[in-house]
Design brief:
Blueprint lengths: L6 H9 L8 E4 L5 H15 L4 E3 L7 H18 L3 E5 L4 H14 L3 E3 L14 E3 L4 H15 L5 E6 L2 H15 L7 E5 L7 H18 L3 E5 L2 H14 L4 E4 L21 E5 L7 H14 L5 H20 L3 H10 L7 E3 L2 E3 L10 E3 L7
Parallel strand pairs: 1-2, 1-3, 3-4, 4-5, 6-7, 6-8, 8-9, 9-10
Antiparallel strand pairs: 10-13, 11-12
Helix pairs in contact: 1-3, 2-9, 2-10, 3-4, 5-6, 7-8, 10-11
């Protein structure tokens, strides 16, 4: 008699197997209280289609979650036959870790927010909803050169898959126009607002601005650190254009701590603004009361990812291969699926969803 539990049984215990007729969609986000509230707001719409959500269950510190627990959670989802597709993971590194598992074990994986170009090479089970680093880099460079009429572009980037990918994307886009980066400087990922962070980041930024003399600086960092780095840029030269990548979701709200930022010189990439249609109206009505604000582009993309997989289950049943084939057919043998972020197909990059906004919340 065997006394150990099989991985499948353990997986069922942790995430729930669900019936073969119903199917479950794995939620590959280790959610905090705010993102749990968002999931609660969209869950009734998702489950009204007949599928259920299998939640993230692996626990641990934030640091270990990125490196170890994404793989563990992906393995749990993949070993659970009731999970017929997965939404996520959160960041580019997280998504790449998950994609390796899902492609090895044949699980459809819709990635809402990650931009790493490496995801396209992960395998045929990975489907991304946003343009990759190269496409975004081209968009940012074109905006800087053609709309802002700048001549020298620098990049301040965090040295992870996301930051490096966007740095390379901007550099490649400039190269196609026979131009070079004025400078590219790696910045720490540690908390920039802390006293220690300021001591480290401020001289790095000031030296980069002094050396490269950029008209515009592309910052590839998340919200808190991004604003802090931008504050140091404008402390060094308030005339410099700040161009944020998508991690800042349109750079709409300048924090009180950022005392040097000139709002009229700030722009940020976003993937979504609410459109005037019934899908967007229903989405806003569903989530704004719980959030207390307009949802972010990343949340609209997550919602589309869940509803897209639910539509696949409804059309072809809770079969992983059938769902993968259904996703791949969008834009080829099937019409694009229409979500709140627009038409979704996987035969081309969704470059049309890229846009620039600023603190005044005007679309650029």
């Amino acid at each position: 008699m065997r006394t150990g539990w099989s991985p499948v049984i353990v997986g069922c215990f942790l995430v729930g197997c669900g019936s073969a007729e119903q199917g479950r969609i794995g939620d590959a986000y280790p959610r905090d209280s705010a993102s749990r509230a968002f999931l609660a707001s969209i869950e009734p719409a998702i489950e009204s289609t007949g599928v259920q959500i299998a939640r993230w269950t692996v626990t641990g510190s934030v640091a270990t979650a990125v490196i170890q627990y994404n793989t563990e959670q992906a393995t749990l989802f993949a070993s659970n036959p009731g999970v017929v597709g997965v939404v996520g993971h959160a960041g580019s590194r997280d998504a790449l870790l998950g994609a390796a598992v899902y492609n090895a074990q044949g699980v459809p994986n819709v990635v809402p927010n990650s931009t790493s170009a490496r995801l396209a090479r992960s395998g045929p089970w990975t489907f991304t909803l946003v343009p990759n680093d190269s496409v975004q880099g081209e968009f940012i460079a074109r905006y800087a050169l053609d709309s802002l009429k700048v001549e020298r572009i620098g990049v301040l980037y965090v040295g992870d898959e996301y930051g490096i990918g966007l740095r390379d994307g901007v550099q490649s886009a400039l190269g196609r126009r026979q131009m070079e980066l004025a400078g590219a400087t790696m910045i720490p990922s540690d908390g920039c607002w802390s006293p220690r962070g300021g001591v480290v980041v401020d001289p790095i930024v000031r030296a980069a601005i002094r050396r490269a003399r950029p008209d515009a600086v592309v910052i590839t960092s998340g919200s808190a650190n991004g604003w802090c780095v931008a504050d140091y840029v404008h402390a060094a030269n308030p005339a410099t254009w700040i161009l944020f990548s998508d991690g800042m979701d349109g750079a709409r709200t300048i924090p009180v701590k950022a005392t040097h930022i000139v709002s009229s010189r700030v722009r940020g990439v976003t993937f979504w603004e609410p459109a005037d249609d019934t899908l967007n109206a229903a989405f806003l009505k569903r989530v704004q009361p719980l959030l207390g604000r307009q949802p972010e582009a990343s949340q609209a993309l997550q919602y589309d990812a869940f509803m897209l997989l639910a539509a696949a289950v409804r059309d072809v049943g809770p079969d992983r291969m059938a769902i993968r084939n259904w996703l791949e057919s969008l834009g080829r043998t099937r019409q694009p699926w229409i979500g709140v972020t627009g038409p979704i197909a996987f035969n081309r990059p969704r470059s049309e969803i890229l846009r620039m906004t600023g603190p005044e919340e005007e679309e650029r």
